Fold this protein.
Amino acid sequence: MRVFLHEMTHPEVSRKAEEGAVVIIPLGSMEQHGVHLPLGTDFLIALEISRRVAEKTRSIVAPVLWVGFSKEHMAFKGTITLESETLTMVLRDVIRSLASHGFRKIIVVNAHGGNDAPVRSSVLDANLNSDADVLYVGPDELSSFLPQRLKHELEKSMDLHAGVLETSIINLVRPDLVRRSQPSKPKVKIGKHVLDVLDLAKDKPALRASILSSVLARFDELSDNGALTLSDPLSHWDASETEEALEEVAGKLAKIVEKWKLTGKAEGLKP
Ligand SMILES: [Zn+2]
């Protein structure tokens, strides 16, 4: 089954629109991921999850948006960032194009936390001003689908950037891109007050994310090599465990997509 938009012809796309297919837009970034992972880590992850969900739901995967809002990483070489307004507008125009071809259900799968705010604003705009229903699935939503045990392990080690989670996924999908001989353990410079306030918000992931984004303004001030985790980022899960975790995330999301497909603006809140 063909799932990638860039591999289809226009009559094939037209048939998919008539069938009511969902289009998934994977969104990543081009930003530093420590000394052991490539700059394209987030777009590889967004693409992988989108493909798995599309195969389970007969959806289409639009070309990955490889650049996002990554200003917090600009002190490290190779990072490319859009202004948040540019990202909002690019995504808005991509969604409008797809909606104008008759697609009524569009999902944005975003693997980079920094894209969160600009993307939510494009999605709101599209839901208010187009005929399409747009669902946003960001990093917090994605990790909420992880098996409980792994989620707990990541939370305990503050695995935030280029850590065990991302290394495990890249190790599965592009093992050739993990630099295993690199000393990857970062010197993390998170102050005691930040750790204290995070502890108070222990069971509240959304609040923890807000607190973190209020202090994660510049990664070079938080970590010497760009990674942000208290574990050794190279100590990834083995491939079969990562495969299972990815399948669980994609499977749970696919289930939601199948139900969500049946909803519609006109239906509203009718019982
Ligand atoms: Zn990342």
